[in-house]
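## retry 2 of 3
previous attempt timed out at serialization; input unchanged, resubmitting
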Amino acid sequence: MNFPPATTAVLIVTGVMTFIAFRRRDLWERWMFNPEAILRSKQYERMLTSGFIHLDWFHFGFNAISFYSFGRNIEFMYGWSTLLLIHISAILGGSVLSLIIHRNHDYRALGASGGVCGVIFASIFLLSGSGVRLLFLPIGIPAYAYAIIFLLVSYFCHRRQIGNVGHDAHLGGAIVGLLVAT
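## retry succeeded, writing output
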Protein backbone atom coordinates (compact mmCIF):
# COMPACT_ATOMS: atom_id res chain seq x y z
CA MET A 1 0.00 0.00 0.00
CA ASN A 2 1.01 3.60 -0.48
CA PHE A 3 2.00 6.08 2.20
CA PRO A 4 -1.07 7.71 3.86
CA PRO A 5 -0.06 11.40 4.17
CA ALA A 6 -3.18 12.74 5.93
CA THR A 7 -3.26 9.87 8.42
CA THR A 8 0.41 10.41 9.16
CA ALA A 9 -0.01 14.19 9.42
CA VAL A 10 -2.84 13.84 11.96
CA LEU A 11 -0.68 11.50 14.06
CA ILE A 12 2.30 13.87 13.90
CA VAL A 13 0.21 16.91 14.85
CA THR A 14 -1.42 14.95 17.69
CA GLY A 15 1.95 13.66 18.91
CA VAL A 16 3.54 17.12 18.81
CA MET A 17 0.60 18.77 20.59
CA THR A 18 0.63 16.01 23.22
CA PHE A 19 4.39 16.43 23.72
CA ILE A 20 4.04 20.22 24.05
CA ALA A 21 1.15 19.82 26.49
CA PHE A 22 3.27 17.46 28.63
CA ARG A 23 6.04 20.09 28.74
CA ARG A 24 3.81 23.12 29.26
CA ARG A 25 1.14 22.61 31.87
CA ASP A 26 -0.43 25.98 31.01
CA LEU A 27 -1.15 24.78 27.47
CA TRP A 28 -2.35 21.40 28.77
CA GLU A 29 -4.91 23.26 30.89
CA ARG A 30 -5.78 25.71 28.08
CA TRP A 31 -6.38 22.95 25.49
CA MET A 32 -8.29 20.60 27.78
CA PHE A 33 -12.06 20.09 27.45
CA ASN A 34 -13.73 22.06 30.22
CA PRO A 35 -17.49 22.77 29.98
CA GLU A 36 -17.35 25.80 32.27
CA ALA A 37 -14.60 27.46 30.20
CA ILE A 38 -16.43 26.60 26.98
CA LEU A 39 -19.84 27.86 28.09
CA ARG A 40 -18.97 30.79 30.37
CA SER A 41 -15.73 32.03 28.80
CA LYS A 42 -16.72 31.08 25.25
CA GLN A 43 -13.49 29.12 24.69
CA TYR A 44 -15.03 26.99 21.96
CA GLU A 45 -11.66 25.99 20.54
CA ARG A 46 -11.30 23.59 23.49
CA MET A 47 -13.88 21.37 21.80
CA LEU A 48 -11.27 20.73 19.09
CA THR A 49 -7.91 21.15 20.85
CA SER A 50 -8.83 18.61 23.52
CA GLY A 51 -8.93 16.03 20.71
CA PHE A 52 -5.21 16.48 20.05
CA ILE A 53 -3.74 16.02 23.55
CA HIS A 54 -3.57 12.93 25.73
CA LEU A 55 -3.32 11.83 29.34
CA ASP A 56 -0.10 9.83 28.81
CA TRP A 57 1.91 8.08 26.09
CA PHE A 58 0.00 4.80 26.51
CA HIS A 59 -3.26 6.64 25.79
CA PHE A 60 -1.65 8.32 22.78
CA GLY A 61 -0.27 4.99 21.54
CA PHE A 62 -3.59 3.18 21.74
CA ASN A 63 -5.36 6.00 19.89
CA ALA A 64 -2.54 6.25 17.32
CA ILE A 65 -2.66 2.52 16.50
CA SER A 66 -6.44 2.64 16.22
CA PHE A 67 -6.44 5.80 14.08
CA TYR A 68 -3.72 4.50 11.76
CA SER A 69 -5.33 1.07 11.36
CA PHE A 70 -8.67 2.51 10.27
CA GLY A 71 -7.82 6.01 9.02
CA ARG A 72 -5.38 4.91 6.33
CA ASN A 73 -8.03 2.66 4.79
CA ILE A 74 -10.50 5.55 4.54
CA GLU A 75 -7.77 7.77 3.11
CA PHE A 76 -6.78 5.22 0.46
CA MET A 77 -10.36 4.45 -0.59
CA TYR A 78 -12.09 7.84 -0.20
CA GLY A 79 -9.27 10.41 -0.07
CA TRP A 80 -7.60 12.58 2.51
CA SER A 81 -10.40 15.16 2.63
CA THR A 82 -12.97 12.51 3.59
CA LEU A 83 -10.71 11.22 6.35
CA LEU A 84 -10.11 14.71 7.75
CA LEU A 85 -13.82 15.60 7.54
CA ILE A 86 -14.77 12.45 9.46
CA HIS A 87 -12.01 12.90 12.03
CA ILE A 88 -12.62 16.59 12.82
CA SER A 89 -16.41 16.15 12.77
CA ALA A 90 -16.16 13.19 15.17
CA ILE A 91 -13.94 15.14 17.58
CA LEU A 92 -16.49 17.94 17.61
CA GLY A 93 -19.40 15.48 17.86
CA GLY A 94 -17.82 13.78 20.85
CA SER A 95 -17.23 17.18 22.43
CA VAL A 96 -20.82 18.26 21.85
CA LEU A 97 -22.16 15.13 23.54
CA SER A 98 -19.72 15.58 26.43
CA LEU A 99 -20.75 19.22 26.72
CA ILE A 100 -24.42 18.25 26.91
CA ILE A 101 -23.78 15.53 29.50
CA HIS A 102 -21.36 17.56 31.64
CA ARG A 103 -22.64 21.12 31.17
CA ASN A 104 -23.46 21.41 34.88
CA HIS A 105 -20.53 19.37 36.23
CA ASP A 106 -17.01 20.22 37.28
CA TYR A 107 -15.54 18.13 34.49
CA ARG A 108 -12.38 18.11 32.40
CA ALA A 109 -11.23 15.69 29.73
CA LEU A 110 -8.79 15.23 26.90
CA GLY A 111 -7.88 12.80 24.16
CA ALA A 112 -8.46 11.99 20.53
CA SER A 113 -10.76 9.08 21.31
CA GLY A 114 -13.94 10.73 20.01
CA GLY A 115 -12.29 11.41 16.67
CA VAL A 116 -10.71 7.96 16.57
CA CYS A 117 -14.00 6.28 17.39
CA GLY A 118 -15.67 8.23 14.59
CA VAL A 119 -13.00 7.04 12.14
CA ILE A 120 -13.36 3.44 13.34
CA PHE A 121 -17.12 3.39 12.92
CA ALA A 122 -16.98 5.25 9.59
CA SER A 123 -14.46 2.70 8.36
CA ILE A 124 -16.67 -0.19 9.41
CA PHE A 125 -19.58 1.41 7.54
CA LEU A 126 -17.60 2.39 4.42
CA LEU A 127 -15.35 -0.66 4.24
CA SER A 128 -17.47 -3.52 5.52
CA GLY A 129 -15.62 -6.78 5.94
CA SER A 130 -12.32 -5.14 6.90
CA GLY A 131 -10.16 -6.28 9.77
CA VAL A 132 -7.39 -5.09 12.04
CA ARG A 133 -4.22 -6.70 13.32
CA LEU A 134 -3.08 -5.54 16.76
CA LEU A 135 0.46 -5.75 18.08
CA PHE A 136 -0.50 -7.85 21.09
CA LEU A 137 -2.64 -10.35 19.12
CA PRO A 138 -0.95 -12.79 16.74
CA ILE A 139 -4.04 -12.91 14.51
CA GLY A 140 -6.26 -10.31 12.89
CA ILE A 141 -9.76 -9.65 14.16
CA PRO A 142 -12.79 -8.35 12.25
CA ALA A 143 -13.19 -4.57 12.37
CA TYR A 144 -16.64 -4.84 13.91
CA ALA A 145 -15.22 -6.94 16.79
CA TYR A 146 -12.51 -4.35 17.37
CA ALA A 147 -15.15 -1.59 17.45
CA ILE A 148 -17.22 -3.50 20.00
CA ILE A 149 -14.15 -4.08 22.19
CA PHE A 150 -13.23 -0.40 21.87
CA LEU A 151 -16.68 0.70 23.06
CA LEU A 152 -16.73 -1.84 25.89
CA VAL A 153 -13.35 -0.60 27.14
CA SER A 154 -14.64 2.97 26.85
CA TYR A 155 -17.78 2.12 28.81
CA PHE A 156 -15.77 0.32 31.50
CA CYS A 157 -13.35 3.24 31.83
CA HIS A 158 -16.21 5.75 31.93
CA ARG A 159 -18.06 3.82 34.66
CA ARG A 160 -14.84 3.46 36.71
CA GLN A 161 -13.84 7.09 36.01
CA ILE A 162 -10.38 6.01 34.91
CA GLY A 163 -8.24 9.03 34.08
CA ASN A 164 -9.18 12.46 32.76
CA VAL A 165 -10.25 10.98 29.45
CA GLY A 166 -13.51 11.84 27.68
CA HIS A 167 -14.79 8.29 27.49
CA ASP A 168 -18.32 9.52 26.84
CA ALA A 169 -16.90 11.30 23.78
CA HIS A 170 -16.44 7.87 22.18
CA LEU A 171 -20.16 7.47 21.66
CA GLY A 172 -20.60 11.00 20.30
CA GLY A 173 -17.63 10.50 17.97
CA ALA A 174 -18.96 7.14 16.76
CA ILE A 175 -22.40 8.57 15.99
CA VAL A 176 -20.97 11.55 14.11
CA GLY A 177 -18.46 9.34 12.27
CA LEU A 178 -21.31 7.17 11.05
CA LEU A 179 -23.43 10.19 10.05
CA VAL A 180 -20.60 11.83 8.11
CA ALA A 181 -19.70 8.54 6.40
CA THR A 182 -23.34 8.06 5.43
